[in-house]
Structure prediction request, 189 residues.
Amino acid sequence: MIMHQKKRPSGRERKANHWMDSAAIRRMVVTALLFAVALVLTVVEYQLPIPMPAPGIKLGLSNIVVMYSLFFLKKRDAFTLAVLKSFFVFLTQGAVAAFLSLCGGLLSLVMMLLCMAIFQNRISYLMISIVGAIFHNTGQIAAASLLYTNLVMWSYFPVLLVSGVIAGMATSTLLRITLPALKRLNLKS
Prediction:
């Protein structure tokens, strides 16, 4: 009687089986749900008649979801959400807006991670949020000046700096208010 030994899966097969792993599926579902929440917050923000002192300024409510992901999930989930948000901007507003969104979102995340690494537990969500908002605006204006090769855009930077502080305070406060509900959902990825 010949008995067949079970063949060990190859690297490629193990990688394919990884997608069937329940942890990977859960992480994908959590990321998709957070992206959906970010889209809803974007739509809500566009519907709210919040008077802004200058054109192009908004609170960035969808950044609450990215910050939650950065603080409580895996860091790469935050980057995934930033890229997905930029893809949504591409679909709804075009390539230039998507490029601005991507540059602002990625620079913001890198700078927030840098602050978290440097200051570790000695920095508040408020300060990290303000840094994120300021560098989101900085990334967008840098991208715009690259696209349009015009340094005059940097004259708008003081307005964006002030609005970044205000937006950072707002998103940090809203994250703190929604955090108990988010923690009850147990969205570990």
Summary: DSSP finds seven helices and no strands in the chain.
